[in-house]
Amino acid sequence: MANAIEVHALRKSFGRTTALDGLDLTVSAGEVHAFLGPNGAGKTTTLRILLGLLKADSGQAALLGGDPWRDAVALHRRLAYVPGDVTLWPGLTGGEIIDLLGRLRGGLDPGRRRALTERFELDPAKKARAYSKGNRQKVALIAALASDAELLLLDEPTAGLDPLMEAAFRETITEERRHGRTVLLSSHILAEAEALADRLTIIRDGRAVETGTLAELRHLTREYVDADLAGPADLAGLPGVHDLVTDGQHVRCQVDHAALNDVLARLTTAGVRSLTCRPPTLEELFLRHYSTERDVAGASG
Amino acid sequence: MTVLASPRRTPGSTALTGTGDLARLAVRRDRIGLAASVYVITAAVAGTAWTFRKLYPTAAGRAALAATGGSNPALRFLYGRLSGSSLGSLTTWRYGIWAGIFAALVAIFVVIRHTRSDEEAGRLELVDAAAVGRQAALVAALATAAAPILVVSGLLCAVLPLVGLPAAGSAALALGIGCCGLAFTGITAVAAQLTTSARAARGIALGALGVAFVLRGVGDSAPQTGAAGPSWLSWVSPLAWIQLARPFAAERWWVLGLPLAVAASGTGLAFALADRRDLGAGLLPDRPGRATASAVLRDPFGLAWRLQRAALAGWAVGYAFLFAICGAAAKGIGQLFGTSTALEHEFTRLGGQAAITNAYLAALMLLAGLAAAGYAVSVILRLRTEETGGQAELVLATATGRIRWAFSHVVVAVAGSALLLAVAGVAAGLGYGVRIGSPGSEAATMAGAALAQLPPVVVLAGVAIAVFGLWPRACVPAAWTALGLVVAIDLFGQVLQLSHWIGDVSPFTHAPRLPGGPVAAAPLLWLCAVALAAGAAGLAGLRRRDIG
Questions:
Q1: pTM of the complete model
Q2: How far apart are CA A255 and CA B316, in angstroms?
Q3: What CATH fold (topology level) applies to the domain A3-218?
Q4: For a disulfide at B117, which of B198, B289, B339, B476, Cβ 3.0-4.6 Å?
């Protein structure tokens, strides 16, 4: 299938600040793609370039086969967007804004609008100034999800939602994927990406540092090993073993995939009483990528 | 957010902790506006005294002016009653109430900006969460509003005697203006507690100012003889107290106690209300609205209309009211200015016509045009507010192109200012026509005269679009500066005897002076061409630049 989003070597700076520094991003049609990174990594800038709100300094970006800057209006008929920081018109009600945004996009399904309003428990007759951050977010989400757009661009869509609403959101996204919609979901909530995403891209300082399915990324990373042993096992100095903690006969460490066989051999030699060997959570993956500088500083200091 | 009934306080921290810091922050945010308003009010009053001195050097001339000015009910509605024919009395008549209105406007905008606007935007929550006393924000807002008003009073006390007015009367006028401002500080403090939206709170306070103006207008224009008339209405209006204290004519100092009492009770009430409500809440409930959008709200034009219609309605009502009264004052205006040959010369030159009535009406239409240009600029700049506020992002992420989005507000700006000009013309024509017995023909003539001001208004709208598209970061101050320059050239250019080419900078210089003046098509076409070019440049810039 064709790619819904193709971004190559994208650069954008604001004055002296570089927001994007050669970003690559590919989202294939029909997948839920998580776009992960800490605040200020360039996620919102990327989305705004994809929406044609910002003009990239250099690099290529293609969206649904078109140029996001030149073909903005035509492309926007086929996508729906939820900004990270939703500001609404204080004098309009939530219901009016949902209808307005739907009509501006070229129509929305009244049945879906009703169902989503119920699912997200939104009071559409309230003026926007009376909404909390979470409720403003819901207005934008309902407006986007009630459309028949083939691509959804969601910028940290669950910030401000309570856990119940977050669950409702996940349920909705899972349904959307079943209906063949493509979703680009920017987030720093890792559990969300882990639960929803087919593939993910991790961005840092305006550059993609990892991209692939969760399984592929785990392949690049270490297994977390936690074992209770019958006797002492000497793992220190073994290549591919990291962060080793030995507490009597209890051993914890991270192991490169290539070294896993050797480590297990040593452990079984010592006698295994209990053994957990699990892939890292996204949280741990993420921490590794963004704590590199701190680690380097810690190692040298 | 609720507050514990008896919050534990560390020693030395009170409900007012942090007031000084907040007031400094407020003054820092408003420093240019505050300084400008102090200057404008002081200069208007002192300048009027100086002008009267120059234009009416003799007691006989002043007495004649006072006689005509005092006998015209429409002028009494606008300016109030005369307490005598001295230089001081004339100054109090011409600018006493209007300086009071300006002081009240300063109070209203500053108090709302630093109370309800901050609260609505969530900034107050941030401040209140810091080590700041519960009443500190309100006290700081009131102090920020009161300070420039008191500075105006102090300056006028010092400046008016320099122009040659008696010291006691100068003090009475200066304090009267200041106390009026303080009264509206108190009234606005209450309004800020009532509603959850700053716009509505400002509306309430401005409504109170409007009511005060009309009450005293009716009271002042009523015949003075016969105690049964409605002249007592003046006594319930804070604006009338300035003149009721009779500056320069046996001052009644006790009258100044009335606005101070209003200020004190308003402030007290506001603190009591603030103590009883939650942060962000108001006392008047928010009405629920429609759960679905009406058919009007279907495209960017419907949205722009929805966002701008309330302001347009307010402007239109104000225009109808003000220009009907000013139009009615046109009858007999010739006698008024006939009392000063210097002024007659001045006024004839300003209008460029021999007939003083026509010159007066043409000058009114110029004012209508300048104010409509202000309206048009404010409508265009709403685009920038939507852009920085993030609402533009929502719209532009839909199948709405940038040009269509911007054009929706441009249409409101042009059509809205055309409507305002038509209202001004018809209202002035009716006001004048009713008094001379031909309302229909005067309304038609004046509507045409007013609409002749549309091309220069559209030029200023075009300038606003140009800076919005090409220079977004500076567009708000740049557009208002352009308008300010044009206003200064048109209102003061002749008096300051600026050279011709400076006058030519203002688009209003090139519009016909109607009624009575010649009409040439070429300048109007040129103005339209300039407006189109500026607008097109702005839209082209908008198409190329980043949004946000």
A1: 0.78
A2: 76
A3: Rossmann fold (3.40.50)
A4: B198
